[in-house]
Specification:
Blueprint (H helix, E strand, L loop, with lengths): L6 H11 L4 H8 L3 H7 L9 H11 L3 H5 L19 H9 L4 H9 L3 H12 L4 H22 L6 H8 L4 H23 L12 H13 L5 H12 L9 H11 L7 H4 L10 H15 L1
């Protein structure tokens, strides 16, 4: 996630927030649809001052916001005292040693207030007395059972009374952790297509899968070795021609590390292309049917 939105991202987000298509925006601003489309393209950098001013007025935001000078759309004149932040908090925010955009999205998430309420309940020990009272009742019942029937190993009822008692730190640790996890998961999904987001697809896993399939191949040793060689370099076995396959076998025969069968000319049972031809034949038959 980038620390700030680009001009192009801001223009697109504002248009989407207002529920407008490019054509509708063009009608309402007097700017051409093609120009507006270019302005939202990451590769387009030449946005005229006239267009910036026109769009800022239309969206009721500052030109500083569109140009990236400020990240505030509507609160550019807000005083620090209105934010109720301590001096230390302001110093941390001004230092900029974290992603301010991520912090803003966490604060703006619909479950952020719930997380803060849960944190306040824990920090101010608001629920401690009730939890202690409940634990005391459960423990008292457990002691009565022990007095009546004595210590019984692996007794279900006694174990239930023991496990039903809540440890504040452990309980609220799970609650607040789950709150934050849900918030971050939503933000993570919202940014999965960002240019700066790491690709979830792993080429290494594809190679590993191809190598495993090649290793488990039940055909001739020559074809198996060829499949393993090609899989190592991410080459689709069925994509090569018979001529390329034969040439590959000739090259592999020169290796001192492969099985003897591949180096014995004329003794391999090659089946290259059969699987591919079978699939093509099946498609043709299905087409005629």
């Amino acid at each position: 996630m980038n620390t700030t939105l680009t001009i192009q991202e801001k223009l697109k987000d504002l248009r989407v927030e207002h529920g407008l298509t490019l054509e509708q925006l063009a009608d309402q601003t007097g700017l051409s649809k093609s120009a507006l489309g270019k302005y939202e393209n990451d590769d387009y950098k030449d946005i005229s001052p006239f267009s910036i001013v026109t769009l800022a007025k239309f969206y009721h935001v500052t030109t500083d916001y569109l140009l990236g000078v400020s990240e505030q759309k509507n609160h550019s004149d807000t005083e620090l005292s209105a934010l109720h932040l301590s001096d230390d908090a302001i110093d941390v925010l001004k230092a900029g040693k974290f992603n301010p955009r991520l912090l803003s999205e966490i604060i703006c998430h619909h479950d952020f207030q719930k997380m803060m309420l849960d944190a306040e309940v824990y920090v101010d020990r608001i629920a401690d007395m009730r939890i202690s009272d409940m634990n005391a009742v459960l423990q008292a019942v457990r002691q009565m059972v022990l007095m009546q029937q004595g210590e019984t190993e692996n007794d279900l009822y006694l174990r239930t009374l023991e496990l039903a008692q809540i440890q504040e730190d452990e309980y609220f640790g799970h609650v607040i952790s789950d709150d934050l996890k849900l918030i971050l998961r939503d933000i993570r999904e919202a940014h999965q297509n960002d240019a700066t987001t790491a690709d979830s697809h792993s080429p290494a896993l594809d190679v590993q899968k191809s190598l495993q399939e090649a290793t488990n191949y039940k055909g001739s040793d020559a074809e198996k070795q060829a499949r393993i060689f090609l899989a190592t370099f991410g080459i689709d076995y069925d994509a090569i021609t018979m001529e390329q396959f034969v040439n590959l076998i000739e090259v592999l025969k020169l290796s001192k590390h492969l099985k003897p069968s591949i180096s014995q000319r004329g003794k391999t049972n090659m089946t290259h292309g059969k699987g591919k031809r079978k699939r093509e034949k099946a498609k043709k038959c299905a087409g005629h049917g």
